[in-house]
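Chain X:
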Amino acid sequence: QVQVVESGGGLVQAGGSLRLSCTVSGLNFDDVAMAWFRQAPGKEREGISCISWTDRITDYMKSVIGRFTISRDNSKNTLYLQMNNLTPDDTAMYYCAPREQYYPCPSTAQGDSLFRFWGQGTQVTVSS
């Protein structure tokens, strides 16, 4: 059974930073691409970035370029999202998701339909 657990969210002032973590069990983390998504109230879930099992990063959503960095530590089965210079527009529930083994990262524009496994998310709230 695949389990996905996100953590690291919280309340931060505009301009601040957070680092989100995501641990995955029930699959071989070394062999799967991993992605971050977010969903703001009243909006659809949107892709932030994706990283392959070989550390290849496909792209970042336009609004986070230069501020967010995706990374992974296969020895810890953990995915990270470093978020700097946060703004109130970054307020959302953040999710991570693995793809099936050896499937590549889709572009962020393709959305979340190619991902099957989801956690509960971690809330990020940025105050102005």
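Chain Y:
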Amino acid sequence: EVQLVESGGGLVQAGGSLRLSCAASGFTFADYAIGWFRQAPGKEREGVSYFSSTDGVTHIVDSVKGRFTISKDNAKNIFYLQMNSLKPEDTGVYYCAAVYGDWPLELIRSSGSEFAYWGTGTKVTVSS
């Protein structure tokens, strides 16, 4: 059974940092696209950063480029989202997600509708 469990969210002041972790079980990263999505209050879910399962290339949304970094530890089956220079507009619930199969970046929508497996989310609040 595929399971994803996020951790690392919390309350931080603007300019601060957080590292989100997603502990995965029931699958290995080699055959799955994995990534992070977020949903701010009153807004639609958006893709923050994810790995293509086709070639391992990563996508990162323009609004967090230079501030957020996605990484993974294949041996531990955990992937991360390092978030630096946080802004109030980064506030939201962050979800990790995974989907089996061949997923090049161009086929992955920002909404993450292709992703079959989701964690329950971890809340990030950035105060100004």
